[in-house]
Every structure is written in C-alpha cells, then in structure tokens.
Amino acid sequence: MIFWSLLLLATSGLANIVFPAYNGPPRLKYSVVPGYFKQSSLATDDRTYDPLRDSFGLTDPSPHRWYRFRQNIHALNMNAPEGVRYVVLYLARHGQGHHNVAEEFFGWEAWDCYWAMQGTNGTYTWGPDAKLSPRGHSEVARTSKAWKREVPHGVPLPESHHVSPLSRSLSTLVETWKPVALNPPRPVCHELLRETLSLHYSDRRSKASYLREMYPEVEFPIEEEDPLWNFHRESEIGRNMRIKHVLDEIINNDPNTYIAMTSHLGVINSTLVALGHRPYALQTAGVIPVVVKVERDLEWTGEPVWRKKESWEIPKAEMRSVCPGYEPVLVSGQYVDGMGVWPYS
Ligand SMILES: *[C@@H]1O[C@H](CO)[C@@H](O)[C@H](O)[C@H]1NC(C)=O
Ligand SMILES: *[C@@H]1O[C@H](CO)[C@@H](O)[C@H](O)[C@H]1NC(C)=O
C-alpha cells in the first residue's frame, strides 16, 4: 500500500536504545464474560446497533436490570478464586472532532497523504489537538442523557475514570459525566491512552498547563510538552502492545470494579484485542461496556511485553513525502529524548 511507503527525505539520527529487563507489576490476562452485553456477541451488527437506545446493550431488559447486574458481578467477585477478579470496563469513544470532519471532507487518501500533517486549510482548523465539532458536542450530550436515563434503573456509575491526553476525549469525558456524576471520581489522564502514534497534527496534544486549566476536574500526571507526537506511524501491532501495557498498568493500580476509559477508536480497537473481545466499530461518542475476567498471566516470563524490533530513527526537522503524487510536508521534530521505550514496528 502506498500509505506505508513513508519516505524520509532529510537526515535522521539513529538511536541505539537498550531495553532493560522489565521488573514491573504482574502481567495480566483478560477474557470477556459473555452474555451480559449484546456488543460481546457476534450476532450484533455494529454498523446498525444503537446501544444508547438500549441500556448500553445490557441483555436483561427488566426494570431491575442494573440491580441484578450488580448482584451478578458482586457474586462473580465473591466466588472468584485467588488471583482472579472481575471488572466492568466502560470503553467510550470521543464525539466527532474537527479532524473527523476534515478527513471526511478531503477523503481518506488526501487526508492521510497530506492534510493530516497540516492543522488547517485556511478556513477550517483541526490541529493541533483537534477539539470536538458542534456535532461532536451534541453526540456527547446524547450519550450523557443515555447514562442519566439508566440511573433510576440502578446503573453502576464509573468508580474511576481513565482518559486520553487529547482534548476531544477530555471534553467528551467531562461533558458526558459532569451532568451525571463526576469528581468524585477524579479522572486520571494517561499519556499512552492516545490515538495511534503518527505525524497527524490533530493528534499532537496541548501543553499540560493548558489542559490543567481547561479540565480542572482531571488529574494530569504528564509532562508539559507532548513527548509522543511526530512519531513514525505506529503499526497496529505496535499499538496493540502499547495499549496492553497501559491497560495492565491501569488495572494493576485501580482496585475498582466499574472502570471507565475515554479515548479513541484505535485505542478501543486495541483494548478489545487485549480483552479477547470481538472487533467492534464504535461510533463517535459511543460506549461499549465489557465484563472482564482478570487473571495474572502465568506465562509471563519477566520479559518486556513489547520491544522494539528494529533500530529506529529520531526525526529532526524533516521533509516527508508520505505518498507519491503528494507534496512533501515539513514536519519539525519536537521531542528530544525519553523516546526509547515506545514501541515502533
Ligand atoms: C476547508 O475544510 C473544510 C472542512 O474540513 C471545508 O468545509 C472547507 O470548504 C475547506 N475550505 C477550502 C477553502 O477548501
Ligand atoms: C477499528 O476497528 C473497526 C472494526 O473492526 C474498523 O472498522 C476500524 O477501521 C478500526 N480502526 C482503527 C483506527 O483501528
């Protein structure tokens, strides 16, 4: 595919990074407990199914549905053997962003080959750090109302929130949950919960000080400058490894049962892979709840779960021609170090 023939025109420094043995917390193994949510079943057509009009996909339609659901999850945890735990993940995607509008306008190829690396076409702006579009805000309001409707039926609200550092996800979280219940719990931002690493200008995050000011409800244990934008396009496998890593970190450190993660399509796809869930094309501002069995991964041998396969380059200011037939795009390298641990394959 032409898309992958990324051509580096200017010089790049070669980094020689050695990966130390991984000594962190236990690696986890996940599996989906079927039967609770329609989205877990292959019989559900993700292109037409609207869980916001159907109690987020809960299979039990009774008025006491969520009370029964809680009892079931509680019973699973009470009867779980040592080292096993059950959690309910609410995986939420951000509402439509300006970059989604632009991608639709330019078409996939012109977007990926040229416009994604720009922030504007002169009249419309989608980067850096694409914000929600007006439609995105109303999609999120609809999701928020859907949660509110389930409250009288006992829906378990998130006991903790984990969120991407990109504004479209942060706005989605705050606008969804502030009208229902937020702060507590205080959401925590994770640098690694962001969309596929790339040169896309819409995926360059704002400075941490700006995010703290814009989203005072959220905790930002991140650096001031974005260390991850302007990266080589991350492969799907690379992204799966990154998301497995951050998911393990989240689940290892979060003792709660009802855990919300608000992020991006690519992040959610990779989360579903880590959970062993069927693929599911989530709409903007959509939600997939998943009942998950969590166990220690006994086959884990102490090696890093992801590692770099080849030597890779730290780009300086570069001219890149991403696809033949498109103008080269000037991308100036912003980061200097601290890059050694991120996957690239
Ligand atoms: C710029 O892009 C927006 C959508 O992304 C589009 O509606 C608008 O017509 C474009 N402007 C020009 C001058 O092409
Ligand atoms: C995510 O998965 C859906 C369904 O399999 C697919 O249609 C979509 O292209 C994937 N998107 C990304 C960014 O991985």
Mean pLDDT: 83
Fraction of residues in helices? Answer: 25-40%
Relevant CATH superfamily: Phosphoglycerate mutase-like
Largest sheet: 6 strands, mixed
Radius of gyration: 20 Å
| Order of H and E elements | EEEHEHHHEHEHHEHEEEE
Q: What distance separates the N and C termini?
A: 16 Å
| Low-pLDDT stretches | 1-22, 303-318, 332-345
Structural class: alpha/beta
**SS element count, helices:** 8
The shape, in one word, is globular
GO molecular function: phosphatase activity
Pfam families: His_Phos_1
InterPro entries: His_Pase_superF_clade-1 (IPR013078), His_PPase_superfam (IPR029033), PG/BPGM_mutase_AS (IPR001345), PGM_Phosphatase (IPR050275)
Signal peptide: 1-15
Characterise this structure.
By secondary structure, the protein is of the alpha/beta class. It has a single domain, classed as Rossmann fold (3-Layer(aba) Sandwich), CATH 3.40.50.1240. It is 27% helix and 16% strand. It has helices at 65-78, 98-106, 108-113, 134-150, 167-177, 208-214, 236-253, 265-275, and strands at 7-8, 12-15, 28-32, 84-93, 160-163, 188-189, 258-263, 287-296, 312-315, 318-321, 329-331. The protein has a six-stranded mixed sheet, sandwiched between helices. Strand 5 (160-163), helix 5 (167-177) and strand 6 form a beta-alpha-beta unit. Helix 4 (134-150) runs parallel beside helix 5 (167-177) and helix 7 (236-253) packs across helix 8. The structure holds 2-acetamido-2-deoxy-beta-D-glucopyranose (2 copies). One 2-acetamido-2-deoxy-beta-D-glucopyranose binds next to helix 2.
